[in-house]
């Protein structure tokens, strides 16, 4: 886990000089992003949460709209969840909207940010709120100048792992944040965080970083080792387990019989053939194989002589209006074509 590279703060070059070069570059080349102008912790929190949801090109309109509806912590805390969800529409991950609302209610009931700043450890106070993780909590503190932090997201992991030639896998975000928390004070300030974010986007890009233009090139250990592209190190994924499912198909020339999946779990809420997990691989070859995040799914199709219990007919002509898992959609399109050919 990169023990040789641990202790960033002990590097001789982690000095004011590196920060000075970075900030001088930022003053000349940094991006002007309107949402960076505020130091209001509520706005920063909303902005950071929305930036996680939105591509940067659409972010500004989203931020303006959200803050127009809920201009203050009090406004958000006192709004009904339905109106928060209305403004959130189209962003996905609705759990985040629920968390934002719940956290606003809790923080408001506790006396808001003003009360939070008087607590001995505001970072822990923020981390205790629903949906606020290590990055967002530090971003709120650093960007509102209420705490000396360098919030580390995936882009900063890339820059910092290269800069320190740190072989710790990029997935170990807690390690990177811990190292950043131990950097000298000069590194833990709002402007440095913005500068490193811009460096990550403009120069220290995932492919073909522009090291010749980089203000940190004189300090960069990855560059000195000629090994920039070795960082960040990707952790090897453990092989995905395989699970076997039987899919029960009853179809006619008119349509196919489907069930709606339960809201949680595999393919939650989507329409699907009735399915059952098998305890072991079936004797025959699977009809299809599909890779999901956590496992490899082997699907076996069993044709039924009559509809499965609880299933309901869906006409082929309207199948496209139903949300279906990708492999089931492919399978049924194929099936529908076969019926049409035979007509
Ligand atoms: S010198 Fe290259 S690898 Fe190092 S921080 Fe700059 S752009 Fe990234």
Please outline the helices and strands.
Elements: H1 16-29, H2 41-51, H3 56-69, H4 73-78, H5 81-88, H6 94-109, H7 112-117, H8 122-127, H9 134-143, H10 154-163, H11 173-181, H12 190-202, H13 221-224, E1 242-249, E2 255-260, E3 271-272, E4 275-278, E5 288-291, E6 296-303, E7 312-315, H14 326-342
Parallel strand pairs: 1-6
Antiparallel strand pairs: 1-4, 2-3, 2-7, 5-6
The structure holds iron/sulfur cluster (SF4).
Iron/sulfur cluster (SF4) binds near residues 163, 209 and 216.
Structural write-up:
It is a single chain. The protein is an alpha+beta fold. It folds into 2 domains: 3-156 and 174-198, Endonuclease III, domain 1 (Orthogonal Bundle), CATH 1.10.340.30; 242-342, Alpha-Beta Complex (Nucleoside Triphosphate Pyrophosphohydrolase), CATH 3.90.79. The protein has 14 helices and 7 strands. It has a 4-stranded mixed beta sheet with strand order 4-1-6-5, with no helix packed on it. It has a 3-stranded antiparallel beta sheet with strand order 3-2-7. The structure holds iron/sulfur cluster. Residues 159, 162-163, 203-204, 209, 211, 214, 216-217, 220, 222-223, 228 line the site of iron/sulfur cluster.
